[in-house]
């Protein structure tokens, strides 16, 4: 029976003699050659047709559970293999992480390389490839349906040369909207109407003692942000913290420290389209201070945050004018408060956990395109 069914479901067509044979064996009729016919030919043809019809019905029935509500075939569980952990820092994948932590079912996140042949997606974080601490397993067979994913949350100038990756990756995962899987550093979400303060809420109700603060770990005098800082501190005081000035702030105290400042310099290390990091979402917004941003153009910020929630360096003709504006704004309580109006109905959602980012691939898995990046460097530019 099983054999008969599987042939019915897999082969395209059956010639009539074949069908007649199946019909006979199923109905326990003795096998007959055409010469020994004892049943009128017409009845045999009808038996065959009836049987064929029944088979078609059975075929439709057995294929039903494989069709999801949207009507497309979907594998029961998608396996995402992390070839190595970003920054070589592993996290627990015990239990059904995607379901348990993020409510996403049918999504298996693994970091065991022996599961390679079962993986639907294999993830490679760029940082370790660039530093040569990890290599692509180019010697392994690549099955037709398995896809290799290139993951980087760095701005293009910091990714280095990508020319050697021509024709290797099928999917890209990055912060920008041109990636197959877009994983922003953060976003604004509508606030729950409960009135209770959520984790994304800010700490603004404290006295501000410092005008402008900046936390910088990687100070490079060639960065535009360094030149802006040098000019700004000629006009107004700027409190600098971080590794660059040997004033490291523990993560647990960072937001508290920043919340004492009227303004926070959310200066990105590169001015690349859509490259807006936790410097805005966490350091500034969650600390309840007003970000002064330097990075992509204002329109990129406005695409993700209200226009009156930040001050853009490009809004001013000179850094001196920016400094004078900040000083004046800090004394105009009503106007200063207007920069926090968005807190009324929005809250900050931060993305920091690699597991959350990767689990979120599964719900969009079916919509991911099939392609190969022949020129990753051109794409990432
Ligand atoms: C990885 O998977 C293989 C095969 O399923 C298993 O034998 C092995 O114990 C696993 N390794 C780890 C570290 O879990
Ligand atoms: C703010 O400062 C004033 C005056 O120094 C003080 O009375 C008040 O308690 C402070 N408020 C907070 C929330 O620290």
TrEMBL record:
Catalytic activity entry: L-seryl-[protein] + GDP-beta-L-fucose = 3-O-(alpha-L-fucosyl)-L-seryl-[protein] + GDP + H(+); L-threonyl-[protein] + GDP-beta-L-fucose = 3-O-(alpha-L-fucosyl)-L-threonyl-[protein] + GDP + H(+)
Catalytic activity, EC: 2.4.1.-
Domain Fucosyltransferase N-terminal: 76-186
Entry keywords, A to Z: Endoplasmic reticulum, Glycoprotein, Glycosyltransferase, Golgi apparatus, Membrane, Signal-anchor, Transferase, Transmembrane, Transmembrane helix
Domain of life: Eukaryota
Domain Fucosyltransferase C-terminal: 206-379
Membrane association type: Single-pass type II membrane protein
InterPro entries assigned: Glyco_tran_10_C, Glyco_tran_10_N, Glyco_trans_10, GT10-like_C_sf
GO CC terms: endoplasmic reticulum membrane; Golgi cisterna membrane
Gene3D superfamilies: Glycosyl transferase family 10, C-terminal domain (3.40.50.11660)
SUPFAM superfamilies according to UniProt: UDP-Glycosyltransferase/glycogen phosphorylase
One function term, GO molecular function aspect: peptide-O-fucosyltransferase activity
Transmembrane segments: 50-68
Family statement drawn from the similarity comment of this UniProt entry: Belongs to the glycosyltransferase 10 family.
Known role: Protein O-fucosyltransferase that specifically catalyzes O-fucosylation of serine or threonine residues in EMI domains of target proteins. Attaches fucose through an O-glycosidic linkage. O-fucosylation of EMI domain-containing proteins may be required for facilitating protein folding and secretion.
Protein name (Swiss-Prot/TrEMBL): Fucosyltransferase
Organism in which the protein naturally occurs: Pygocentrus nattereri (Red-bellied piranha)
Higher taxonomy: Eukaryota, Metazoa, Chordata, Craniata, Vertebrata
């Amino acid at each position: 029976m099983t054999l008969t069914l599987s042939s019915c479901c897999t082969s395209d067509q059956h010639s009539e003699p074949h069908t007649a044979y199946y019909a006979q064996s199923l109905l326990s009729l003795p096998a007959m050659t055409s010469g020994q016919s004892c049943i009128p030919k017409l009845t045999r043809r009808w038996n065959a047709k009836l049987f064929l019809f029944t088979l078609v019905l059975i075929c439709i029935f057995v294929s039903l559970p494989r069709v999801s509500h949207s009507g497309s075939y979907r594998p029961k569980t998608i396996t995402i293999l992390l070839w190595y952990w970003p920054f070589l820092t592993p996290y627990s994948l015990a239990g059904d992480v995607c379901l348990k932590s993020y409510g996403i079912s049918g999504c298996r996140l693994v970091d065991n390389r022996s599961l390679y042949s079962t993986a639907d997606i294999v993830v490679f974080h760029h940082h370790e490839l660039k530093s040569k601490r990890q290599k692509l397993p180019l010697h392994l067979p690549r099955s037709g349906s398995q896809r290799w994913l290139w993951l980087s949350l760095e701005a293009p100038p910091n990714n280095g040369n990508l020319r050697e990756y021509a024709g290797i990756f099928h999917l890209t995962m990055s912060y920008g909207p041109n990636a197959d899987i877009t994983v922003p550093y953060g976003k604004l979400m509508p606030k729950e109407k409960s009135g209770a303060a959520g984790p994304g809420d800010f700490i603004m109700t404290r006295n501000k003692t410092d005008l402008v603060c900046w936390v910088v770990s990687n100070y490079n005098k060639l960065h535009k942000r360094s030149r802006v800082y040098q000019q700004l501190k000629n006009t107004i005081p700027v409190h600098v913290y971080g590794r660059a000035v040997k004033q490291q702030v523990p993560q647990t105290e960072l937001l508290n420290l920043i919340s004492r400042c009227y303004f926070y310099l959310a200066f990105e290390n590169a001015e690349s389209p859509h490259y807006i990091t936790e410097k805005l979402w966490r350091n500034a917004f969650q600390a309840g201070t007003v970000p002064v941003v330097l990075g992509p153009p204002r329109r990129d910020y406005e695409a993700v945050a209200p226009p009156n929630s930040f001050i853009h360096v490009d809004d001013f003709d000179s850094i001196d004018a920016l400094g004078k504006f900040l000083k004046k704004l800090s004394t105009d309580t009503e106007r200063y408060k207007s920069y926090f109006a968005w807190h009324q109905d929005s809250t900050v959602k931060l993305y920091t956990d690699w597991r959350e980012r990767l689990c979120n691939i599964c719900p969009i898995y079916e919509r991911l395109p099939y392609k190969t990046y022949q020129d990753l460097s051109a794409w990432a530019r």
